[in-house]
Design goal:
Length: about 280
């Protein structure tokens, strides 16, 4: 395939190096870094496209890959900016009560990258990217997705939130420490979670084993050296989230995004207007 995507690749690489994107790596949502969730949404979107079309050549004629990639990268920008500025409203509340905040933030980042590179995204794609960002919560937000690309990202975000945004601490890790006499507050510090997470994991394990109290649970663990961490659905969520976190920690968020196959099919002449000043 002849490459005519140099500008698009440079745009995405520059976007990934933007301060607001880099900030996302410092914040977690239910034990999962925002960047890890962002990569997951991109991967799930990619998997849906591969599933729905015979190949990516057909897919690129039916779906705007650039809008999806850029929209995914910036869809949760406010999760960083809100915490950094100590805003009282959460990201979800902003999506409902102040969608103009979300829109302006996304637009400002796009403009910053455009001006830095001397390019401008064609207006139709720009609007689609902003729409992806502002509609990705679907019925849980104020704006509903109404483009093919926005629907893909919304579904991917929902799946990631349902299956892969859970603190991967399980009762097995908790009980390994409890069996050594470590107290709950210290366990929470050791595992990087809240005492509420610890209590929830113990409760799930007791329910699975039909045990009445934590003492029985500890005795069971000491005897068997393993323990169910919850029902099948919960266990699937924890294990898949652990795998996702390891992958992003090992490979790096930026590297994984830049390696996504969708980027190979981007076409500069369809994405950008003439360079600013020409």
């Amino acid at each position: 395939m002849q490459k005519n995507n140099n500008k698009a690749l440079k745009f995405i690489e520059t976007l990934l190096d933007h301060e607001m994107i880099l900030d996302l790596d410092m914040y977690e949502d239910q034990g999962v870094k925002v960047t890890t969730h962002t990569y997951d949404v991109l991967k799930i979107s990619f998997d849906e496209i591969k599933r729905d079309y015979r190949d990516l050549n057909e897919g690129k004629e039916r779906v705007d890959f650039f809008s999806i990639v850029v929209g995914v990268i910036i869809h949760d920008l406010s999760k960083g900016s809100i915490r950094k500025s100590e805003e009282k409203l959460s990201h979800s509340q902003m999506m409902i009560k102040k969608p103009e905040y979300i829109t302006k933030e996304a637009e400002n980042v796009l403009v910053a990258v455009e001006e830095g590179l001397g390019v401008r995204i064609v207006e139709k794609m720009r609007k689609n990217i902003i729409h992806i960002v502002i509609s990705h919560h679907g019925k849980w937000g104020k704006i509903q997705p109404n483009t093919k690309e926005a629907h893909i990202v919304h579904r991917a975000d929902m799946y990631s939130a349902k299956y892969h945004r859970i603190n991967p601490v399980g009762a097995d890790k908790v009980l390994a420490l409890m069996a050594m006499g470590v107290q709950i507050d210290d366990i929470a510090k050791n595992l990087g979670c809240t005492s509420g997470i610890i209590k929830d994991r113990l409760k799930r394990a007791k329910q699975e084993l039909r045990l009445k109290n934590t003492k029985q649970l500890i005795n069971y663990y000491k005897k068997n050296k393993k323990i169910p961490i919850g029902d099948d659905f919960f266990t699937k969520r924890v294990r898949e989230t652990e795998k996702l976190i390891r992958a992003v920690d090992r490979e790096g968020f930026k590297n994984l995004v830049m390696e996504n196959q969708l980027l190979e099919y981007l076409e500069d002449n369809k994405i950008f207007e003439e360079a600013v000043g020409e």
